[in-house]
Write a structure and sequence with these properties.
- With about 300 residues, the protein is of the alpha+beta class.
- It has three domains: about 120 residues, Immunoglobulin-like, CATH 2.60.40; about 90 residues, Sandwich (Immunoglobulin-like), CATH 2.60.40.10; about 70 residues, no CATH class.
- The protein is about 15% helix and about 35% strand.
- The strands form four sheets. Strands 1, 2, 4, 5, 6, 9 and 10 form a seven-stranded mixed beta sheet that branches. Strands 11-12-16-15 form a four-stranded antiparallel beta sheet, with no helix packed on it. The chain has a four-stranded antiparallel beta sheet with strand order 14-13-17-18, with no helix packed on it.
């Protein structure tokens, strides 16, 4: 004797869903068949944790016209739609890291079955990274820029870029910049120039979000640059004071590249006063950072 049982099984491909801690997640489960007269409708959501002793747990079910939940003291589980008319999706509120798992939806009525699976991955987006710099900001030197997020689900990706137009645009790093491929959160700015000055932004990102920090690179002049400033300022003061020093035009030729011409004698103050000389020495000390010493009277 044999029995013929009418059974229809409908399956759907598994779905992967990535969400952030604290958000809500709706795990989809839709069916198209309807219970006939006298047939019951059963819906089950099953949680499967491969690394736990109790691997399979029924977390919410509709049976005998009643909804039951299991191990949900916070009331975070519920059906999100009209579960009696085709939408048996599951709503999980205030997601926790421990909610990451495989979820299976089973719908049964009159010998018809629907199985669907959702792999839920709960992640933490990167925290705001900290930016810092190592090295001296001098022309020709190298500095290392680093950034790091204290929290966030791995893998966290890091990217350095230059900030232009007061944050309105971004650009490429300087040509000699070296990114550490094993540790992309570190970039070395090599052979610094005045053009290296500016704002640099590091962005930390993963599958669910991103955060960034900005660091300013401000170049400092070397001694030779400061001397040029001192000479140019001294020349300016000489012109203003009406004092002619024969060496000044030659110095101007060295630092500005303009042709040297001897202006000839100028009938102005023939000597530089001691107070003016001391003033220039103090000015040089401020610009170059060298100690100021009083040389006494100087003949010019």
């Amino acid at each position: 004797m044999s029995f013929l049982v009418e059974c229809a099984i409908s399956t759907r491909a598994q779905t992967e869903m990535k969400k952030v801690v604290g958000e809500n997640a709706t795990l989809p489960c839709h069916y198209q068949f309807r219970p006939q007269t006298g047939q019951t409708l059963d819906i089950e959501w099953i949680l499967q944790k491969p690394n736990f002793k109790q691997r399979v747990v029924i977390i919410i079910t509709f049976f005998n016209n009643e909804v039951y939940t299991n191990d949900d003291p916070a009331g975070r589980l519920s059906f999100s739609g009209d579960y009696l008319n085709g939408d048996a999706s599951l709503l999980i509120t205030d997601l926790q890291l421990s909610d990451s798992s495989e979820y299976h939806c089973k719908v049964k009525t009159g010998g018809k079955y629907l199985w669907s699976q959702v792999n839920l991955v709960v992640l933490v987006k990167p925290s705001k990274p900290r930016c810092w710099m190592e090295g001296r900001l001098l022309e020709g030197s190298d500095v290392r820029l680093s950034c790091k997020s204290a929290d966030g689900s791995e893998p966290i990706n890091y990217k350095w870029e230059r900030v232009l137009d007061k944050g309105k645009n971004v650009g490429k790093l300087p040509p000699l910049a070296l990114v550490d491929l094993r540790n992309p959160e570190i970039v070395t700015l090599r052979n610094l120039t005045q053009e290296s000055s500016g704002a640099y932004r590091c962005t930390a990102s993963n599958d669910v979000g991103e955060e960034s920090c900005i660091i300013e690179v401000t170049m400092q002049c070397k001694w030779s640059c400061r001397v040029a400033w001192f000479v140019n300022i001294s020349l300016l003061f000489c012109i203003i004071d009406g004092i002619h020093l024969t060496c000044n035009p030659r110095l101007k030729t060295v630092f500005t590249g303009t042709p040297y011409t001897d202006p000839g004698p100028i009938d102005v103050h023939p000597t530089l006063s001691l107070d003016q000389w001391k003033y220039n020495l103090r000015l040089k000390a401020v610009i170059t950072g060298t100690p100021s010493t009083d040389p006494g009277p100087v003949e010019v």
